[in-house]
Amino acid sequence: MTQTVLSIQHLQKHFGKFQALSDITFDVNAGEVFGFIGPNGAGKSTTIRVLLGILKASGGQATIFNQDVWSQAVSIHNRIAYVPGDVYLWPNLTGGEMIDFLLKLNHQKHTAKTDALIKEFELDPKKKSRTYSKGNRQKVALIAAFSTEADFYIFDEPTSGLDPLMEEIFQKHVLALKENGKSVLLSSHILSEVERMCDRIGIIKAGKIVETGTLDEMRQLTRTQITVATQQPLDAVAQLAGVHGFTPDATTANKATFAVDTAQVGAVMSQLADYQIVTLQSTPPTLEDLFMRYYNAEGEGDSHEA
Predict the structure, then answer these.
(1) Does 174 fall in a domain?
(2) Which of 31, 71, 187, 214 is the most core-located residue (most Cβ within 10 A)?
(3) Which three-class secondary structure string do you get for 80-108?
(4) pLDDT at 179
């Protein structure tokens, strides 16, 4: 039986007349990396602040380890690690001192693993925090989090300010957490990051979860892009069920590009074979395709606090 670490049911949060969260419902299971995606302003950080007991929900319910996130926040915090998207440090403490302080707050100790993480993330722990760039401040929090022995890790836009190499290191350590049976909630708008690491995702738009599921399940909702060249004219392909955006190649005869609904790919491919295929390129749907299905020109979420 799958153990549920985080359970959110119809969570709501309003600030006066502004409804920041209107309906947030999803679960995170043991040993799972759950991607929580949406643009800035959609409600990701507000949701996480409710989970951390920083904000009190206006409605609905949220539990971590079957404990209420508001009334039992202290108990919950003993078993979680958290990295925000913008880390603030005491300016006169060194990076090393800040890491040790953050570890002590979680009743943890500086270990050989901490030293290895400092080296891997290329952080100079002797410099004062006030001299750190945004990326280095993120490194301090990430090193402390990955050094912490927790059951549930919450990352809210954790790679903001990191260069691509450091992002790779972050991803490696998240996957290591998963291999060790830990649970991770990853809030991000970097779709490639989510696609690589997450078992399931939830898409939030304007304070509401609009889709949850595995990437394979969600890809069934999007279209496969096909570019094909054949020996016979392709004009009739445009009329096939499930074909969209049929565009003939302006420079090559009997060549075209179009999208196909996932459910119709088999039938369309059978039809294409009758036209004597010369070359064919098929591009499966990506997380970005799915994301843009919900975030189009008509609604990018709102511009309020995330």
Answers:
(1) yes
(2) 187
(3) EEEECCCCCCCCCCEHHHHHHHHHHHCCC
(4) 94
Structure tokens at 21: 């969260």
Domain with residue 237: its CATH number is: 3.30.70
Cα–Cα dist 231/243, whole Å:
20
Query: What's residue 302's pLDDT?
Result: 41
pLDDT at 1: 65
Q: What is the pLDDT of residue 300?
A: 43
Q: How far apart are CA 253 and CA 279, in angstroms?
A: 13
Q: What was the pLDDT predicted at 254?
A: 94
CB of 43 closer than 8 Å to CB of 206: yes
Cβ neighbours around 252 below 10 Å, total: 11
Q: Are residues 122 and 209 in the same domain?
A: yes
In the 8-state DSSP scheme, what is residue 157? S
Domain identity same for 72 and 11: yes
The residue among 199, 213, 135, 214 whose CA lies nearest residue 170 is 135
**For the chain, which residues score pLDDT lower than 70?**
1, 219-221, 295-306
Question: Residue 262's pLDDT is what?
Answer: 80
Q: What pLDDT, on the 0 to 100 scale, is given for residue 221?
A: 66
Distances (CA, A) of 143 to 29, 33, 112, 215: 24, 19, 12, 29
Q: How far, rounded to the nearest angstrom, does the alpha carbon of residue 279 sit from its chain's CA centroid?
A: 35
**Residue 186, domain extent:** 4-214
What is the reported pTM? 0.80
Q: Hey, what's the torsion of the CAs at 301, 27, 188, 80, to 10 degrees?
A: 130
